[in-house]
Amino acid sequence: MRSRMLKRLASATSSLLTAAGIMLPAVAGSQPAAAQTSDLVSKTAFRVCADPANLPMSDREGAGYENKIAELMASKLGLPLEYTWFPMATGFVRKTLQANACDVVIGFAQGDEMVLNTNHYYTSAYVLIAASGGPLAGVTTLADPLLKDKRIGIVAGTPPATHMARNGLLLKAKGYHLMVDRRYEDPADDMLKDLESGALDAAILWGPIGGPLVKASHPKLKATPLLAESTPPRLFYRITMGVRQGEKVWERKLNSLIRRNQSEINAILADAGVPLLNDMGTGPLETPK
């Protein structure tokens, strides 16, 4: 499923976000000191680990917006782009980044202790998706009375489910799986199909998944960021790139690349349909005209 970010955000209620629903392996703290330096970073290629079936973010054909960001970073470094493909499932970081199969994962929630985070390169939020022009199209909080008795699709275990429970919205809700292999199951697509068929009144997805899906394939739907929640957990997150713990030199190099190429990164994300917010998650990102 387009659950790369959803998996990372599943533990947001405890403020620590994980990449694939797993704990930091104990072996990471016992590696030799040399493994905690930039000596492991390739000098001959920009090596990225990614899910080969995770659109709109990434796929083996390079059609995802994270693929395009990786291409941009590689071009600025003057290096060829090389991928290690691995499904976003238990063991992803351990079997890829920590195993030195790559040097960076594009798209990691800030604060995830599985990796060393770069500076964030965008902020986004969960979105409520409903019929464009319909009564729910402008809803910005799950406390809105308009949602009472509505059939809402939600990915189980994600932060909005806490708000739905608080507001009595789970009785008629339909849950969709969080931890899946996208090669065999696609909850985000299933949810939007249910919405368009009338089986649901609204759907809730992580914005960088829902926004691009709506823009690309669902013109009769509208994705509205949930920005007006007054109680925890928050529904907006800052997104970084993830590198190996201890790779401070590499982290600083990527931070410099992000800073110098932020406008191009923003353009890639906006073109894909990712809802871009200001750093505080209170409104749309204002970009220079």
From TrEMBL:
Instruction: List, alphabetically, the SMART domains matched.
Output: PBPb
List keywords of the entry alphabetically: Signal
**Location in the cell:** Periplasm
Gene3D superfamilies from the xrefs?
Periplasmic binding protein-like II
- The Solute-binding protein family 3/N-terminal domain covers which part of the protein? 45-272
Extract the signal peptide range: 1-28
Primary residence: periplasm
Name of the protein described by the UniProt record? Extracellular solute-binding protein family 3
Its source organism is: Sinorhizobium medicae
The opening ranks of the lineage are:
Bacteria, Pseudomonadati, Pseudomonadota, Alphaproteobacteria, Hyphomicrobiales
